[in-house]
């Protein structure tokens, strides 16, 4: 069995735990050790029956070769920073897919990918590393979703869409075919994207329009 530690101890981390538990119900393959969190106030707590083990220092006295981690933090900017800390400690990431998600054999995944229940992926789709796809999404043919993107519940992505690094696509958004979403862009809940979205912007509405532009590199701050 793989020994699993979830990075983060918030709401989405508990949902990631749910996916591991659902997988174990189908076929026992994971020993869930608990959660890691950067906030000392959270250490020692129990979440859904599993402990918050401590901070990243917890790994320093463990055999990391026997442990796989996955980041359960929904915010792409925060997730990227936590993943960088984990990589610096030599930790290895796994993927987790809910048993009710549908992926054809023609879907390629990076590392640290989380796919929740009810989502459907068709043909020739590539997901980068540390991508989160939430409940009941559809991802069409020939899509590319790059590293650290978050796809919120109920998002529908048509074919030949390219979602670049670090994008945050809000609940219920719809992206028509052939669109490119630029790096670190945010698309608001319920938006309908009919034109390419520039990087480092926030877009909302039907059709989606840019309401805010950020300085390049804002996510590094």
Share of residues in helices = 10-25%
| CATH secondary-structure class of the largest domain | Mainly Beta
The helix/strand series, from N terminus to C terminus, equals EHEEEEHEEEEEEEEEEEEEEEEEEEE
| Class from secondary-structure proportions | alpha/beta
The oligomeric state is single chain
- CATH homologous superfamily placement of the largest domain: Hexapeptide repeat proteins
Protein name: Acetyltransferase
Binding site for substrate: 74
Organism: Candidatus Segetimicrobium genomatis
Keywords: Repeat, Transferase
Kindly describe this structure.
The termini are far apart. The protein has an eight-stranded mixed β-sheet with strand order 7-10-13-16-19-22-24-25, covered by helices on one side. Strand 5, helix 2 (76-88) and strand 6 (92-93) form a beta-alpha-beta unit. By secondary structure, the protein is an alpha/beta fold. It has helices at residues 11-26, 76-88, and strands at residues 2-7, 30-36, 46-47, 50-54, 67-71, 92-93, 96-97, 102-103, 107-109, 114-115, 120-121, 125-127, 132-133, 138-139, 144-145, 150-151, 156-157, 162-163, 168-169, 174-175, 180-181, 186-187, 192-193, 201-204, 209-213. It folds into two domains: 2-94, Rossmann fold (3-Layer(aba) Sandwich), CATH 3.40.50.20; 97-208, Hexapeptide repeat proteins (UDP N-Acetylglucosamine Acyltransferase, domain 1, 3 Solenoid). The chain is built from two helices and 25 strands. Helices cover 13% and strands 33% of the residues.
Describe the SSE topology:
Layout: E1 2-7, H1 11-26, E2 30-36, E3 46-47, E4 50-54, E5 67-71, H2 76-88, E6 92-93, E7 96-97, E8 102-103, E9 107-109, E10 114-115, E11 120-121, E12 125-127, E13 132-133, E14 138-139, E15 144-145, E16 150-151, E17 156-157, E18 162-163, E19 168-169, E20 174-175, E21 180-181, E22 186-187, E23 192-193, E24 201-204, E25 209-213
Parallel strand pairs: 1-2, 1-5, 2-4, 5-6, 7-10, 8-11, 9-12, 10-13, 11-14, 12-15, 13-16, 14-17, 15-18, 16-19, 17-20, 18-21, 19-22, 20-23, 22-24
Antiparallel strand pairs: 3-4, 24-25
Active site: 141
Domain PglD N-terminal: 3-85
Protein name: Acetyltransferase
């Amino acid at each position: 069995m793989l020994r699993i530690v979830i990075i983060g101890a918030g709401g989405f981390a508990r949902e990631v735990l749910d996916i591991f538990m659902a997988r174990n119900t189908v076929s026992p393959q994971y020993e869930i050790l608990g959660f890691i969190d950067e906030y000392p106030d959270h250490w020692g707590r129990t979440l859904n029956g599993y402990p918050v083990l401590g901070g990243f220092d917890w790994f320093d006295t463990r055999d990391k070769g026997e442990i796989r981690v996955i980041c359960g933090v929904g915010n792409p900017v925060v997730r990227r920073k936590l993943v960088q800390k984990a990589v610096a400690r030599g930790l290895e990431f796994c993927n987790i897919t809910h048993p009710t998600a549908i992926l054809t054999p023609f879907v390629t995944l990076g590392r640290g990918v989380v796919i929740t229940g009810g989502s459907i992926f068709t043909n020739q789709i590539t997901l980068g590393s540390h991508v989160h796809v939430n409940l009941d999404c559809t991802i069409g043919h020939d899509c590319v979703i790059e590293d650290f993107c978050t796809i919120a519940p109920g998002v529908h992505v048509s074919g030949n869409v390219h979602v670049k690094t670090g994008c945050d696509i809000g609940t219920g958004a719809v992206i028509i075919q052939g669109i490119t979403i630029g790096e670190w862009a945010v698309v608001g809940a319920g938006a309908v994207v009919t034109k390419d979205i520039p990087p480092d912007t926030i877009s909302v509405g039907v059709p989606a329009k840019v309401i805010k532009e950020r300085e390049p590199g804002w996510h590094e701050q």
